[in-house]
Design a protein that fits this description.
Blueprint: H1 2-18, H2 24-48, H3 68-78, H4 84-108, H5 115-133, H6 139-156, H7 161-170, H8 183-208, H9 218-221, H10 224-250, H11 262-271, H12 277-286, H13 291-332
Helix pairs in contact: 1-4, 1-7, 1-8, 2-4, 2-10, 3-4, 5-6, 6-7, 10-11, 10-13, 11-13, 12-13
Amino acid sequence: MVVFFLSIGLEIKREILEGELSNWKKRILPGYAAIGGMIVPALIYLYFNINAPVSLLKGWAIPTTTDIAFTLGVLSIIGSRIPSSLKVFLTALTILDDVGAVIIIACFYTKNLNFFMLGGAIFIVAVLYLFNLYSVTRFYAYGLIGLVLCFFIGQAGIHTTIAGIIVAMSIPFKSHSDSISHESFYRLEKRLKPWITFIILPMFVFANAGIPLYDASFLTLTDPVTLGVMFGLFAGKQIGIFLFSFIIIRIGWANLPEKSTWLLLYGISVLCGTGFTMSLFITLQAFPDSLILQNKIKIGIILASITSIILSAVILRLSKNREETPKTIQKAS
């Protein structure tokens, strides 16, 4: 998954420097929506597990994430006539959601630190900073240094996926002398995409999403952990994203995305309940030694994701029909 996080890091950097997160005005609405989409699901999970053993509370972050690849992929299928402004909003929201996931993993799922190895990791980060400073664009150099960084970070007790983000942030987007264009950065991003889409993510999902049928019992479905994850993703995401967006727009800090409606915005909020890859990943960090808990959580993730996709498709379809009806009447008259 280090390569997956490298890809996420490249996307975040590009969007911050010249994309949908390039200034504070563009960041406000998706930023607050992402915060709401993390806070409410976490609270719902904790509510369902308030009387559970303390060890189960480690799963609070599982329903806080949105699967960027699945969400954007599903929207391209079910939302062909969705305004481009809403697609931009969803892209920015899911990217900021990934930033939140990276911070959560670094802060809450880190083992006891080995400060000697951490010192080695800091030295490697300094080398990467020099690479950026002198506009080194030889990707194999970043790859080799990245492998060394993975070793030191892993031995330091920090999850190695953080190395992918650090390497991505160190790759120059544009040289300081302006003699090198963005082409090399885009080229790397383009090369990674098919590997991520067709090999790394499918392998991760197939390896970790399998659920033995005997685990899918009524007791499993009513288990507080399963319910916390399921309702955290399905209900928490849509409530948090839509509520925070509504408040920010109503108080005048941001505007409703161009050519969109409240119903469309709600449909997009519901779609963000598609957790899947990132939720599965955090599950493995929170409960690495409990296959039973992992299977319960997987059931919750899959049910929430499927339900979110179906309900979102219905809402977006209804919204489209409501827009088309006045046009049909106008033509008939």
